[in-house]
Amino acid sequence: MPAIVIVGTQWGDEGKGKATDLLADDVQYVVRYQGGNNAGHTIIVGDRTLKLHLVPSGVMYPHVTPVIGDGVVVDPGVLLDELDGLVAQGLDVSRLKISGNAHLIMPYHREIDALTERHLGRQKLGTTKRGIGPTYADKAARVGLRVQDLYDMKIFRQKLDAALQQKNAVLTRIYNRMPMKASDIETEYAVYAERLQPYIADTVSLLHEGLEAGENILLEGAQGTLLDLDHGTYPFVTSSNPVAGGAMTGAGLGPKHIERVIGITKAYVTRVGTGPFPTELFDATGERMTEVGHEYGTTTGRRRRVGWFDAVLARYAGRVNGLTEHFLTKLDVLSDFGTLKVCRAYRYQGEEYEHFPPHQTAFHHAEPVYEELEGWTEDITQITRYADLPKNAQAYVERLEELIGVPIRWVSVGPARSQTLDRSVA
What we know:
Distance between the termini: 27 Å
Number of helices: 12
Structural class: alpha/beta
């Protein structure tokens, strides 16, 4: 059986957790394929709310095996705290599998991340200071430590000593900080090793055996398309590949295994951190959108920047991910706004762009070309059929679909799983 990829089409925070949770009924594996604990998913089922950071969203279901894939970077202390919190809420986490090839976030990664961001000053990237970027940098430089190194603390110490030679030179000579002691880190990670070993597995073989047995796999990423290291608004991006292509490398699957790619798209746009944002709102409308939408980060609590829907970005995401369908979230937030705006194109130096501009300067200085649509005043949070939405709400959804060129199958009208309208059902 083929796999399904769920990918954010904006700058993250689109509601991927809810979509994953909704679709998890029909799958046997839910795989997190990239990122670290710099992102979060919020899931609401009944009266229970879960805020997940590293554990895949499928943990809610006894029939699902949650998998942390090769492409993820793991802070073992954070992961164990999250698992303990889930157990305290009565959830069984024993099914979790962690790839031995996933890289470990080390204490020096967090320290260097925070120091680098501080020294960049006004040029800072807006990272979460959780060591994600430095860990991926070490992975690319082939000096990183991996989860499988926890099996043999002798090998772990050898790799740690080699890494600290360079890291301590950076900490002491560039940032005037105290060096880190290998013995302290070894002691800390030896405790993690004992607790994590039951979860460590050859996840690539596990997933392929599942496919061969006819089981279904759901691949969920963190962040979104515009934060992709290669395809996002560089340098204001994350350090991994949230796009659908990253799902294959991060999980160890091939193109033939992917049948559907579902884009998670908010009915407006948000982003956290610095970087360009053509449709950003700085007025009372933006303030209201922030508060009604509760636009604060799941992991950091940081306030998100908000703006009108951007069809240029949505078309771009459709192309680079090969989207087959969309899951539109937070339509309810736009109720009672009167007039709604949708960016259909950009204008830069007298030229209009319906697709992503060819260079960074054009995007940074792009002016949105808006079209206006009539809003609606009705409360839509209790509606259970798409056909029962106010006509203006339907017109808004259908206009977005026309502009982005990919079918919108699901429409979310609230945070709960039950508040999801499937347009394929009459």
